[in-house]
Each structure stands twice: as structure tokens, then as C-alpha cells.
What does this fold into?
Amino acid sequence: MAQFLKSLIKVSVKAANIARVCREEKHLFQLLVQEKHEGDKNPRFFQDFKTLADVLIQETIKHDIGIEFPNIASHIKGEESNSFSNVLGESITVAIQENEADTAALLTQVLNGDTRAGGLLAAEVHKAVLVDYQSLNVDRIPDDLTLPVDNFGIWIDPIDSTFEYISGSEEPSVVRNIHSKGLQCVTVLIGVFNRQTGEPVVGVVNQPFITKKGSEWFGKCYWGINYEDKHYFSDEFEDTVEQQKVVVLSSSESSDLKERLTERGYLVVEAAGAGYKCLVVALGQADAYLLSRGTTYRWDICGPHALLLAQNGGIIRFVPAEQGSIQEISYLETDDDKSEGINQWCNKDGVIAYRNAQFLGEIVHLLKKS
Ligand code: 2IP
Ligand code: CA
Ligand code: CA
It folds into this structure.
């Protein structure tokens, strides 16, 4: 079991490295923030570099996990499509190749001949990553824990909070170490679910930008396991029992909901990133994350969901909660919903992420429509 978790952690660190190198390496950074102007003489040079960075991270995760766990390779899915078209109108599928040179050649082709960028990215993809698992408390998992890995599927959001990733602002936290915007809100999300029960089992959330020393950023990785009655979590959280309850919301949340929460005496904090908002709940910096609309997808929450379940919390649907009904979000692939394309993966009823069942009860009571 520990091997499965270690592989997920390792590839999340590699993903975070790719995310960082695109911001820290000058040549890549220029491509990342390049604006496309209307009437540009050099039209759509390719889909755009930020999408390539996203896809590359996703494909790296798929590739590395697929090699180690081939039985689930076809069940690893992500937010992005890996098909690109370049200026010549060629359609190119971004997939990690057997060796660095071949990956560099393929990326260079996507990048319309930019060998430098292709080489820099390929180097990061094929770099051996060393992880200090002990510092991540992986030894909390007993040696004899075995999980039916072959029954699992994986949802990947290679970069959540893309807007914050591109803007790259550095902002101080607003309260209890929660950042409303900025690079701290960026996360790499890997969520493993059981294809038979639809339940999240393992979650790995990597925050690539936490602290900066000089011009170099350092991140952190969190994990959680929720299997039958066994629960393990990488971190400790500070219990906020005595303090005012904190609820995190999207800045686009309805003002009605904000007002009701404030009137009830909760501290309402806006923060970017669906994954980040779930993470601050898992870490005990906030008590709940509420989203009344269908603006997130399975890949935004599957990983963080496992972190919350690992602490007897969870993520439920917002809309049924307004009728007093508590319905945990499921990742079953046979959805009754007949939506197509991206819509079939939408959490269309909104979400409520929580860590403490008693507090969830308070929230549901507050939302209940008479
Ligand atoms: C987005 C991102 C946004 C979030 C939105 C997600 O994912 O996390 O920040 O909106 O729901 O789908 P908000 O920050 O208002 O909660 P991505 O960055 O991957 O598109
Ligand atoms: Ca997302
Ligand atoms: Ca994303």
C-alpha cells in the first residue's frame, strides 16, 4: 500500500517541479505569460503555453502511475485533452515518451520548433525525484494495509487555480493563514476513487508555491487515505473549537449566501481555487467550504475529498442540503445523468466541504429552506 501512496506523492512532487520551472526558468516564463493580441501578425502559435504546461503535468502523472500500476492505466483521467494543433495545422498528441530525447522532440514539435523550451520541459518530466517520505508521515500507514488498487480510478487536476498560477501574485494571508488569492492558492490535485463504490480512497494535494527563499519557491504535499474504517492523514490540524467558525467561499458566490453566513456569526473568507478551499478545510484553517453553483468538476474535488474523509469529514451536494438531505458526492462512472462532454463530470448541485459532522449539521440547518 505504502508503495501506491509513495508513487502518487512522488509524481505530485514532479508535477509541482514542472509548475515551478515554468515560472522560474526565464525562457519558459516568457512563454507562460505571453499575451496574444488581436490582429497579432503571428497568430495562434499553438494552443497556448499554459495549456501545454497543464497537459504536460497531467500526462506525466498518467504516465508515471500507469507504468507502475498498469492495471489502472486506462482509468486515469484528467481535466485536459492531450491533443494539440500547431501552426502547420498538425494535430499532435502530447504523451510522455520512453526517453527524454523523444519527449523533447515531441514537445518541440508542439512548440513550433522551440527546442529550448521542449528540452527544458522534457528534462523536468524525466528527472528522478527524491522524496523524504518520512517528513510526510508516510509511516503512519501500517505495513499490512492492502488496498484493491486494481479497482481504482484516478481524477487529476494538473493545475487548479490556473488564473492565480499565470498572474503569479504574492499576497499575504488574510486570516488563519488563508490566502484569498496569489500563488499559494495553486494546487496539483490527484484523487483516487473506488470504481465500484464511487468513494474517494486516496488523495494527494500538492501546493507548489508556499514559501519563497530568494527567487525560489518551495511547496508542500498533503495526503489522506479513506478505506473502509481506516483513516490516515499526513498532517495535524489545529482545533478551532473555541474560535469563531470560518467559512470559505468563491469570490463569485452569491451575496445572499455570504450575508446569511455573516449574520449567523461565521467569518466569511473568500479564496481562489476549489482545491485550495477544500485544502484549508482539511487543514483546519477553515471549518467549511460552500459553493452553491455547478462550477466545479470531479477533478477539482476528488483528491481533497479523500483528505476530508480521512478525518471523518467529507464533501456533500449543496442543493439537496437545502432540503435537509445529506448526499455525499460520488465518483461512480455510471451516472444517471445523461449529460455529455465535460458536463457529465460537473458537480452541478454545488458542494459543501466539511471536516466536522456537527458543524455540517449547523450549516445544513442554516441553509434549510422552509
Ligand atoms: C477552477 C479554479 C477556480 C475555481 C473553479 C475551478 O479550476 O479552481 O479558482 O473558482 O471552480 O473550476 P473559484 O476560485 O471562484 O472557486 P481551474 O483553475 O483548474 O480551471
Ligand atoms: Ca480546477
Ligand atoms: Ca486545472
Q: What stands out?
A: The chain is about 35% helix and 20% strand. The radius of gyration is 20 Å.
